Structure formats: structure tokens, C-alpha cells
Amino acid sequence: MATNTDPTDPWSLVVPLKPLARAKSRLAPAAGAELRPRLALAFARDTVAAALSCPAVLDVVVVTDDPEAGAALTAIGARVVPDEPDRGLNAALAHGERAVRAGRPRAAVAALNADLPALRPAELARVLDYSAEFPRAFVADAAGIGTTFLSAAPGVELRPAFGGPSRARHLDSGAVEIDLAGIDSVRQDVDTGEDLRAALALGVGAHTAEHWDTGGLPGRRGSRPGPGGEASVVSSPDR
């Protein structure tokens, strides 16, 4: 198997984020209209913070037109670029890819969902290390239907096909599916109340845990290991 990327080379990640007023609409029945956009931002903050804590990651580019989200994510170290195409998720990801490679033409790039509040840096590192063996590779979501992660080696176009049954589209495009055990935090995106409970069971980051507590939603106690493996965050208690 040919290696396309030196595993020691840092990755650039592209994270797309809708304007908060429109984000996570399917969470509304569980979270309510007021909490839903706050949770969307909390998910993104926890996702980006975990990604930046991964030693394999050089930088995270967030594609968003939301000023509140942009300021919050810039504050924790992300580079924010406006969604100039304004043509949906995949156009935003391609725009982010171009923004990365404008400065680093030979960068290894990966797209990562913004709604992975339980993301563990060590699990992301395993995924990136495995991805380095292939021109393009992806991780299916916990349901086995969508996609949470897609990588492209240096000199390879990302060609994102996210949205709906994207696992099948990425397979059809020639991307290799990453089927590692023990990467649940990379798979567990959050679209519904059930997804959020599953993420809490894994253990979410500080921002999501804060809003879960104040929102009074049903959940389970959990913790997320920090970069060194220690438990660093506890989600909401049983209610």
C-alpha cells in the first residue's frame, strides 16, 4: 500500500458551519428554539477545540458567515473564512480546501463535521494516521448512512459529497472507508435529540455540557478524555 502523506506531516481541517439561526433544525423538538442555535455553536466550539488539540492537526479553517460563531471560533484558534460561494455544504468545503491550499499547495486536507461534541483528539489522530495511506478516505457517521470526515492527500482534490446518504456517494467516488474500531467520537454527529444523548454517553466537551445542563434536557453522565487521556469534562447528570 503506497503512503501518500508522511504521517508526521500536519493536516489542515476544514469545518463548515451554517449561520446559527438555521443550524440544527432537527434538534428543535428536543432543544427548543432558543437553545438550538446555542447548542449548534457549542458543538462547533467543542469540535474545533478537540481538533486543535490533536498533534496531527496544524490548523482548522472554519467556513461560516455567522459573525457570532466566527468570533467564538477565532478566539479558540480557528481561522475563519466567509462562505463566499454560498451554495451549500459541499461548495463551502471546496472553498475551505482552496483557502488552505492557497497558502500550502501541498497540504493534506480533511473535512470534518462541526457537530462532533464528543470528539477525542486521540481518536481523530488515529483516523488521520490511517487516512495518510490513501488518496481519499472517509468515516461514516454512527448511523452508517452519512459522513463525518473526508480526507484528501497532497495533490488530491477533496471532492466532498456530504449530505443525506453520503457514505454511498463517497464510496462510489473511490474514497476508502475507514472502518477502525474505537473511533466512536469521530462518528457521532448530532442532528437529533437521540444523537445528542448518544454523544453525552460518550462524553462531550465543556461548551456542550454547559448548555445541556442549563437546557434541562434528559441525558446521562459521561466524561471525555483530554489530550493526555485523562477525563476532563463531565456532561449533564441523570435527570
Describe what this molecule looks like in 3D:
With 239 residues, the chain is α/β, with parallel strands linked by helices. The protein has eight helices and nine strands. The chain has helices spanning 28-52, 67-75, 89-103, 121-131, 166-172, 184-187, 193-202, 206-215; strands spanning 11-16, 57-63, 79-81, 108-112, 136-140, 147-152, 176-177, 223-225, 231-234. A hairpin with a 6-residue loop joins strand 5 (136-140) and strand 6 (147-152). The longest helix has 25 residues, at 28-52.
Short description:
The protein contains eight helices and nine strands. It is of the alpha/beta class.
Radius of gyration: 16 Å
Beta-strand level of the residues, as a percent range?
15-25%
> How would you spell out the order of helices and strands?
EHEHEHEHEEHEHHHEE
Q: How many beta-strand elements?
A: 9
Order of the strands making up the biggest sheet: 3-2-1-4-6-5-7
Structural class: alpha/beta
Q: How many angstroms separate the termini? A: 50 Å
Helix content: 25-40%
Which residues sit in consecutive blocks of at least 5 with pLDDT less than 50? 214-239
Biggest pleated-sheet summary: 7 strands, mixed
Characterize the overall form. globular
Helical stretch tally? 8
* Mean pLDDT across all amino acids: 87
